[in-house]
């Protein structure tokens, strides 16, 4: 769930740069109460305020050892029902992409797939569209979308982890060099091995 807060921070930082359109990837779990709170308290208000400048790619996901419950539905973090709701969200995003944020906000607080479908699909779209979305969510098509989402999420997590490790490595190296300098010349300012980063207290910060 912490990933979603990270992406919101990236979103706000990007908006400050006044880019014409900002693309943001958001990851959420359909049965997670923290995701529900984030969607309604943060994501929806930001989207409504800045929708002219935003392109949001929402990825319904869940922690599973088997590619987002494709093989074992009970491997998902919040059980089989989350797998079903994730598939419904994925299908809504693919069939009615213009309403993806509204769809996520509607499905997220629902307790199960049936109520999600009745409230957020059957009650909003014509029968033909509703039937296609239902077939998608309960069949192989929805599971295929989840596999694609899981691949995107895994790739982004790997990139973020690599960046953090590189940053930490720089900071630790700087910290060792600063300690040596302080021991050898207490009165002299610390010499940074890398001028781009410094260790400040217990944090690594860019300078």
Question: How does this model look, in words?
Answer:
The protein is mainly α. It has 2 domains: 2-162, Glutaredoxin, CATH 3.40.30.10; 168-206, no CATH class. 59% of the residues lie in helices and 11% in strands. The chain is built from 7 helices and 4 strands. Helix 2 packs antiparallel against helix 4 (100-107), helix 3 runs antiparallel to helix 4 (100-107) and helix 6 (127-138) crosses helix 7. The protein is elongated. The protein starts with a helix and ends with a strand. Mean pLDDT is 76; it is low at 64-68 and 70-75.
In total, the number of strands is 4
Task: Tell me the count of domains.
Answer: 2
Give the name of the CATH superfamily of the largest domain. Glutaredoxin
* Residue fraction in strands: 5-15%
Topology:
Elements: H1 2-15, E1 22-28, H2 33-50, E2 54-60, H3 80-95, H4 100-107, H5 113-122, H6 127-138, H7 140-184, E3 197-200, E4 203-206
Helix pairs in contact: 2-4, 3-4, 3-5, 3-6, 3-7, 6-7
Quick summary:
It comes from Heligmosomoides polygyrus. This protein has 207 residues and is mainly alpha-helical. Helices cover 59% and strands 11% of the residues.
Which properties best describe this structure?
207 residues; 2 domains; two-stranded parallel sheet; 7 helices; Interferon-induced_GILT; glycoprotein; Gamma interferon inducible lysosomal thiol reductase GILT; oxidoreductase activity, acting on a sulfur group of donors, disulfide as acceptor
């Amino acid at each position: 769930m912490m990933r979603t807060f990270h992406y919101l921070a990236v979103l706000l930082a990007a908006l400050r740069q006044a880019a014409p359109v900002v693309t943001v990837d958001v990851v959420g779990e359909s049965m997670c109460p923290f995701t529900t709170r984030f969607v309604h308290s943060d994501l929806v208000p930001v989207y409504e305020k800045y929708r002219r400048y935003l392109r949001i790619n929402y990825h319904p996901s869940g922690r599973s050892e088997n590619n987002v419950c494709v093989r074992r539905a009970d491997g998902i973090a919040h059980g089989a029902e989350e797998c079903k709701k994730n598939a419904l969200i994925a299908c809504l995003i693919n069939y009615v992409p213009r309403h993806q944020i509204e769809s996520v906000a509607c499905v997220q607080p629902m307790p199960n797939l049936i109520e999600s479908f009745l409230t957020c699909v059957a009650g909003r779209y014509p029968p033909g569209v509703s039937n296609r979305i239902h077939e998608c969510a309960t069949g192989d098509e929805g599971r295929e979308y989840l596999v694609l989402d899981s691949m995107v999420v895994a790739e982004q997590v790997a990139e973020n982890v690599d960046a953090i490790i590189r940053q930490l490595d720089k900071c630790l190296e700087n910290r060792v060099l600063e300690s040596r300098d302080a021991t050898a010349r207490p009165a002299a300012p610390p010499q940074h091995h890398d001028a781009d980063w410094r260790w400040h207290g217990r944090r690594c910060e860019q300078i």
